[in-house]
Amino acid sequence: IRNLEFFSDFALRAAYYLGLPAHGPVPLPRIVERWTVPRASFVHKKSQENFERRTVRRLIQIRDGEAQAQELWLAFLRKHAFYGIGMKANVWEFAGVEVGKDMDAQMEKMRDELETTLGDFAFKRNGETGKKAMEVINRENFRAATGGNAPMIKKTP
Length: 157
Prior knowledge:
Blueprint lengths: L1 H16 L4 E17 L9 E15 L4 H13 L19 H21 L8 H10 L2 H7 L11
Antiparallel strand pairs: 1-2
């Protein structure tokens, strides 16, 4: 537990000096795993060993921090990781309601590059397989299932 407390304090101090609003460390429930295995082969079933693993966890939350500062903080923590301490990061990024339209616009910009890249592989639009794939993609039921926004669909005005 001493290593965990040390590393969580280290993480909070690093967040402070990067200007990130950090909350924590909040102690999370301890996970205890136990299992029993025979000491020897099948004949000696009565002689068994018990093993136990206790996982102690802490939660540190960064709210409303800059994305670049958060990435820098996580990279710094990974670089200076302490032995016996694992780290898991859940990162949420909030976007506006128009994010789908922005992604479609980016896809349209990348369409030419994507077609040349796909041309290097087995998928070719002008070949037999490519024609069949394009027929499937351009069917009405496929368009209805994808909302008409699947990549490489022919847009008909």
